[in-house]
Fold this protein.
Amino acid sequence: MHITREELNKTAEDILSKYDGVTLTAKDRAGIPVQEMPAQDPSVRITNMEEVNEGYTEAQVKAEALRCLQCKNKPCIKGCPVGINIPGFIAKAAEGDFAGANQVIKESSLLPSICGRVCPQESQCQATCTVGKMNKDVNKAVSIGRIERFVADYVRENDCDVAPEIKKASGKRVAIVGSGPSSIAAAADLRKAGHEVVMFEALHKAGGVLVYGIPEFRLPKKLVQHEIDNLKAMGVEINLNYLVGKTRTIETLMSKDGFDAVFVGSGAGLPKFMNIPGENLIGVFSANEYLTRSNLMKAYDEKHSRTPLWESKRVAIFGGGNVAMDAARTAKRLGAENVTIIYRRSEEELPARVEEVGHAKEEGIEFMMLHQPHAIVGDDKGHVTGVKVVTCELGEPDASGRRRPVEIEGTEQVVDFDTVVVSIGNTSNPLIKQTTEGIDVNRRGNFIVNEETLETTVPGVFAGGDIVLGAATVILAMGQGRKAAAAINAYLGDK
Amino acid sequence: MNKIVYKEQLSNDIYKIIIQAPLIAEARKPGQFVILQDGGDFGERIPLTIADADTEKGTITLIIQASGESTMLLTSKEVGDSYDNVLGPLGNPTELDNYGKVLCVGGGVGVAPMYPIAKALHNMGNEVKIIMGARNKDLFVMKDEMRAIADELILITDDGSSGRKGLVTEPLKELCEEWKPDVVFIIGPPIMMKFCALTTKPFGIKSYASLNTIMIDGTGMCGGCRVSIGDDTKFVCVDGPEFDAHKVDWNNMLTRLGTYKGIETEKKQECLCELKQKNEAR
């Protein structure tokens, strides 16, 4: 049964009036129920691309902030990859001082409106929260991400964000390769330090994975544009349609164009495939292609977009991460009647966020757990007609610590599908490695960097985000961007 | 924004368009391509080969066949107009070498990307023979440019309206038998490239084909351009666009190219009507 935003707001108002003027004990606080995130009705939202989560009301954010104990050891801060002063901003939010809360967040994080939406809080700050521990349930921890999101949205909508202070010109120039989360973070910090910062983006729109990968219904593109506009307002120059390695090499940027340092945040690269028969049939897509068509090229707007989309009735998604959930939920919105996630382990091992899995289920996505695709089968026209799968059971834990799927003999069957989206991750993009002499990579193609400074094997060239980490999260990429920016500042100061 | 500085209609639906793109003009090498995106948020990204470049003027030459909705809109622009986004140069340059005897086979607008390759090979001292094929005489592009650099230029049309009557595979086979080229470069419609590859294979002559597959970003992200090369899956944008023609799984590539045929035919019809109305309104 769907609960509307109005109903959730009423519950929050009741809590606030109940505790008005009362001094709360830790037990009282932990006993306040978690304020649920208002969301579009599942039956409605599968027919549109608009954001699923509607965001807390003011009463909800205050009620949720009351749940924070302001405990002494602050385990949440240690759980945050960028160490945001979480109890600090929640205390301000509880008072209704949202501009103040934002200032606290901005000391450590640059993109709260984005991280509040896409961070896996349940495995970071909320995983260590004392309230969650008291309730013996991580899902009953303080909803830190939801409060963060409210604060960020509030200052954007009420135009009371803090304008970053920019130090006087240092006379140094830094090139930023890519415009995703690590690049945005690095660019902002380097510009604040007074350097001239130029960002180079290959696509026709800035934002990287935030624009081409994460769907509108999870991260509205106007929020990403807002962050890009902020960078421009700070004086960061953004060059689109510029593929570093091809349009210009890093070497040329440094020797000819006068860049004193370079940050490479070029992101993940080539999509991985399963290497099973039938993967080049018509109707098989990488998640990257499927999502890029829909998100960046706006093919979901069939009437206006000139980029075509494959029409699907029955869609199989290979993989169980957040990208797989994004692809599945996109397919549903594009009109597929049946969308099935095929994953070789059990639901417990799904790498996707709990919230994403929950949303997918509400939207009618089917989960075929403990199945391994063996082949994609097609008709004489080369079109996908089904997937040959085999049933698995869980064996002993493997190197990742998760129980290894073991195929059960004699369980092979063909399930009907007309579309397959392969979402099992990416290998690294080879372009910069191919065109930059002296860049060393590991066997997966990720850049080898000094762990302290994120400097690559080429002096003055630093790197962060997925090109170093492999597939990671927005917040980790952002954290690396900031870390590299600090190291670049030190490097330029010594130069 | 990339301004159009020159536009010429070469035939019914083929246009030569020169645009400002100084960095691409400087960096590009024979065999590479660009991606054009125009018309705001909803415009499609279209891979196009670079036919020529002028580093002094900072321009690149594109030969565009208006075969679908997006290419029709691109070619409906005039001198002084601009394209929103041009990315390049993409893909790996052709492996230029002193091969000795080089045979270039270009079909239709595939002659355009062949031109810089043939020219560079000619300038390096190779003996270069060129076969140019088209459906009829009106569909030849860059004939004079090719003639200027070819040791021998063979024209062939489906209907015999210019040069020999027949298919490019016929003179190709004869030259493989008699002239015995050291290497063959093939660019044209996929079906033509497939049969050229089948023609040179029995002779064991190294043959390269330049593939133009479905592509979105062109930078190694989407995987839409993947092709089967021998036992491997390769990506045209970062591993190509040129591959050993004898190893390409042509039938699979041809099938994959047809993915959006139905939708595209529909969109083209709508676009034709719109452009017609626009012209009438003028």
Summary: The mean pLDDT of chain B is 92. DSSP finds nine helices and 16 strands in chain B. The first strand of chain B starts at residue 2 and ends at 9. Chain B touches chain A at residues 23-24, 27, 37, 39, 41-45, 69-70, 73, 84-90, 216-217, 219-224, 226-228, 233, 235, 238, 249, 252, 255-256, 258-260, 263-264, 267 (CB under 8 Å).
